[in-house]
Amino acid sequence: MSFRALILEKNDTGEITRVVKTLGNDSLPEGNVTVDIEWSGFNYKDGLCLTGAGGLVRNYPHVAGIDFAGMVSESTDARYKPGDRVVLTGWRVGEAHWGGFSQRARVNADWLVPLDAGLTTRDAMVLGTAGLTAMLSVNRLEQAGVAPESGDILVTGAAGGVGTIALSLLSTLGYSTTALSGRAQHADTLKRLGANTVLARQDFLAEPDKPLERAKWAGAVDTAGGKVLGKLLRQIQYGGAVAALGNAAGIEMEANVLPFILRGVTLMGIDSVMQPFEIRAAAWRRLAGIFDPALYENVVAEIGLEDLEQAASDILNGTIHGRVIVKP
Ligand code: NDP
């Protein structure tokens, strides 16, 4: 019944240490469903939690890992029984609660989503929080009236986790996309994932700023925030919409109101953490129908618990491309 987990501890000088330990079920927290974790995802927030940056983790010892997928081994909740395959993202799991960098977790049943038969647990973590957030963003763009015939969709932070999945989903759905990326070396991969055009972030930002700029995009999936979000808003066409989900370029937004009052542009915030069950379950069902794991496979890297320290430093330094998944 023992299992392995990466345990984070804070020493007397405030430094975070990371050690893989073998534990028993008596170490698990309270909860009504126990899950044998088959795969965990690796995200920017995991980089913060693993290093103590951002103050997301308050209590130690701690198990990080904001998403995971696996098989139910015990359940006292009527919705789940042993053998069920489940996925968990959000709800501050891995930040305030025991997370996915472990072979086992015990959680609140309300946080789980049954895994659609069309996805393996590995597929679910190739997607992970990044995939769910990309799907929620595309769903919201469509609800705002954006359709493939509306025009080009700009995807920012295109070489990252959310960006690469957003590109592949939009491409499968028949959208024309432009990938905005600061890393020219990934241009060919972005095109293979479905980007029609790759735009260098330096060139995009170097264009002279005007209160309103030439309308180029029917919509955007923005992982960047900051100056990038402000600029792209000024380039959205009449009636277009933007799904703002990230802050890779900063939390301030350098924007003005003209795109809203002269072009009727809609700015929508996307949060994956506290989404109600029905919305997340519907997003996972749609992902199962349209995500093509084979198309995405060459931007997936597999690591183990011992590799997480290096991965944390890589994601915080912006050198991760696509998705990293963890076999605990
Ligand atoms: P990644 O680290 O995988 O990707 C982020 C990408 O942002 C990088 O690959 C890079 O893309 C780009 N980027 C980095 N620095 C800058 C910069 N200074 N200006 C503009 N772009 C930059 O992270 P994820 O894809 O997992 O997450 C993206 C963002 O979304 C993060 O801020 C994350 O916290 C947030 N997020 C929010 C969620 C929500 O629920 N709202 C859920 C998941 C993530 P490139 O190299 O192509 O330029």
Q: How does this model look, in words?
A:
- Helix 4 (187-192) links the parallel strand 9 (177-181) and strand 10 (197-200).
- 47% of the residues are buried.
- The protein has helices at residues 44-51, 121-143, 161-172, 187-192, 201-206, 226-233, 258-263, 277-290, 293-296, 308-316, and strands at 3-10, 16-23, 33-42, 67-75, 85-89, 104-107, 112-114, 153-156, 177-181, 197-200, 217-222, 236-244, 250-253, 266-269, 300-304, 323-327.
- The model has no long low-confidence stretch (mean pLDDT 97).
- The protein has 328 residues and is α/β, with parallel strands linked by helices.
- It contains ten helices and 16 strands.
- Helix 2 crosses helix 3.
- Strands 3, 4, 5, 6, 7, 15 and 16 form a seven-stranded mixed beta sheet that branches. The protein has a six-stranded parallel beta sheet with strand order 10-9-8-11-12-14, sandwiched between helices.
- Residues 43-45, 129-130, 133, 157-163, 181-183, 201, 223-224, 228, 245-249, 270-273, 315, 318, 320 line the site of NADPH dihydro-nicotinamide-adenine-dinucleotide phosphate.
- One of its GO terms (molecular function) is acryloyl-CoA reductase (NADPH) activity.
- Residues 18-326 form the Enoyl reductase (ER) domain.
